[in-house]
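User: Here's a chain of 672 residues. Predict its fold as tokens.
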Amino acid sequence: MEALHLHNHRRLRLCFPVALILSAALLPVLSCSPPMAGGGGGGGGATPPVAKKVKHEMEMFGDVRIDDYYWLRDDSRSDPKVLSYLRDENAYTDLVMSATKDLENQIYAEIRGRIKEDDTTVPLRKAPYYYYKRTLKGKEYVQHCRRLVPNVVSPPSVNETMPTGPDDPPEHVILDENIKSQGHAYYSIDAFVTSPNNKLVAYAEDVKGDEIYTVYVIDAESGNPVGKPLEGLTPYLEWVGDEALIYITMDQTLRPDKVWIHKLGTDQSSDSCLYHEKDNMFSLYLDASESKKFVFVDSESKTTRFIFYIDVSKPEEGLKVLTPRLDGIDTSASHRGDHFFIKRRSDELFNSEVIACPLNNTSETTVLIPHRESVKIQAIQLFSDHLVVYEREKGLPKVTFYRLPPVGEALGSLEGGQAVDFLDPVYSVQPLETQFSSSILRFSYSSLRTPDSVYDYDMNTGVSVLKKIQTVLGDFDASKYITERQWANAQDGTQIPISIVYRKDRVKLDGYDPLLLYGYGSYEISVEANFQKSRLSLLDRGFVFAIAHVRGGGEMGRQWYENGKLLKKKNTFRDFISCAEYLVEMKYCSKEKLCIDGRSAGGLLIGAVLNMRPDLFRAAIAGVPFVDVLTTMLDPTIPLTTAEWEEWGDPRKEEFYFYMKSYSPVDNVSSN
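Assistant: Prediction complete.
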């Protein structure tokens, strides 16, 4: 009933069960027939379970809200009455959907049939080894592997390949998750970090699904454990030299609040706490510099981030302040030579600038890349001779790199940046790890029609080499699909970008094609126009798929986000409705064939627009939806609620209370 969106990017995997979408929500659209009495599908006259009503009054600012279903809240997940009702709901769903089982099985087989089960990732060269992951046919989990580099003195090259012949260095499996997962109903490894000397590996393991991890250290060759495991951790984990780890733990609300250092061979109880963030609006995270000389500890809220650092060669000196805690100032950092490089955002410099400061005088800053109102700086990546800047302009990702002066020379404003060219009208680009000492930039590229592709780009020569493209088994042909970018006018005149894909031989664009419109619009998260193999089961059946890049996300810069949060949150919902109306007007679909989808905060979006315009949509999927906004945000005992006040507002203040109530889906369900 109360699904709070956690500020954690690991929870934002934008995957959805296509089989469920097609069979449950979209099958009526495909057939264009009305649902059957009693719920539709094959349920005939089946009667849905009806939750009992137990009056629960909540009063604030003289306003009384009644929630007859508040009793369904069960934090322990053990109330027999709640569990019984949920079982009845699931049984009813199975009954109603029973006639679509063949379709579900067919789609499931299609999705599985596109997956190449035996595969490897692109090897990453680190010191004397290539590191990579391997998947095996019929196995659910990965193997973490490495091989020796035959000629370690040869410089890295974009044309370099890992030798795998019978006379080449053999593969060594460091850890096989298929073996480790045995006996566990749930198994996940998050962090997997190698010590600087490549002799040890530390990894974070979750066997419950609660995202509370146990960290193990093993010998990379033998697999034997080194010391006792560390319990109750987040997955944020970095090496400090070859004999110590820095890690983060959480408080009782699951907020990352303490950073610790652990010396190998000692008990966890003797670990030193380097910093305790007591402000419940802030959470802690770790980043290692590309140079591996420093580890940064970030303390961040929704609007502010400040940084500590620890010198890996001098861990006994502890944490030092790099950027001070200043309200509204957001900083992130890296290192090269005798300078820290910092991305800095403020209310005035809302799309960020890049500055540098000497290691021995962090208050002396030089602007390398100034703030620009039309270009948002998302992240920076440092190399020994280059600075790479990941940006967004007009809603699209950009990658620009600059040559840096030799270490020891003065740094000044950087000019003559070179951009990497991309072909699709809408696409996604993500940075990947590579060698700091090389000139090779590695990134992942995909689009709505282009499978995930890993490229190595030599910043000295401009040569780009495709290292691997995701295999899609079956008869997939990217040339059969069209990707487009359109713009819808919002109610206030703002233009909202829409990313679109469809199969050109299955779609007529005459207003009769079914369309699935996806939206999110929160936390400054940009919904990327990337490839999903499962989506082909929609496109190959004649669906148009579209993404509404609404305000509240980060696609068009920081102000795009600011204009879709707090007391401007309704812009998110209005933008989505405007995109839907545009798609109908331009004959991508009709109201009768328009389906919508969103998850978590995107589920709030779906609930809100259904209340606002129930006539506009035929089917809706609200995944793990955050729909009881007001009740949730009034309860600080729910994990991370207090940190969310900077995103949604604090309803203990009257202005926010009534504004949130005006759109909270649960509080706006009409009897009509």
